[in-house]
């Protein structure tokens, strides 16, 4: 059973579907919603690492906090506790690094659920997380199907 569950959350319907899936299917799990503030490649290309935290503007931090508050509101609707946090960097790398560094048991990530294969089906971030994650990954389709 997954005790510690990471849900990458960006406020999209896909990430909401992933969070709701976790609340429905893992009633005893400790859930963390992670928002990644994407830093353009030119800024981080030579600084990649699990502890990378580039400075961001106050406005960007406020946006991250607002998005994560929406995740907390969903948790409240389900009567669940939710830890929230944000990091900076390249989303797929940061999700995998966070799951590893925080000893997560499972990542539940949303995908757009459109027809196609691999990257088209999952989306590039979800596909990379699935390939590189040291822990199990459950992909939740954003159209309500699982």
Automatic annotation (TrEMBL):
Positions of the UspA domain: 1-141
UniProt xrefs under Gene3D superfamilies: HUPs
SUPFAM superfamilies, A to Z: Adenine nucleotide alpha hydrolases-like (SSF52402)
Pfam families named in the record: Usp (PF00582)
InterPro entries for this protein: Rossmann-like_a/b/a_fold, Universal_stress_UspA, UspA
Family, as annotated: Belongs to the universal stress protein A family.
Name of this chain's protein: Universal stress protein UspA-like protein
Species whose genome carries this gene: Halovivax ruber (strain DSM 18193 / JCM 13892 / XH-70)
């Amino acid at each position: 059973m997954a005790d510690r569950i990471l849900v990458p959350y960006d406020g999209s319907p896909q990430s909401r579907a992933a969070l709701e899936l976790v609340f429905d299917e893992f009633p005893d799990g400790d859930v963390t919603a992670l928002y990644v503030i994407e830093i353009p490649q030119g800024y981080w290309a030579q600084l990649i690492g699990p502890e990378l935290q580039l400075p961001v503007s106050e406005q960007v931090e406020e946006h991250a906090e607002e998005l994560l508050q929406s995740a907390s509101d969903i948790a409240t609707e389900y009567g669940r506790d939710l830890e929230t946090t944000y990091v900076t960097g390249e989303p797929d790398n940061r999700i995998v690094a966070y799951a590893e560094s925080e000893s997560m048991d499972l990542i539940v990530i949303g995908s757009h659920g459109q027809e196609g294969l691999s990257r088209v089906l999952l989306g590039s971030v979800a596909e990379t997380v699935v390939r590189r994650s040291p822990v199990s990954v459950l992909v939740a389709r954003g159209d309500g199907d699982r």
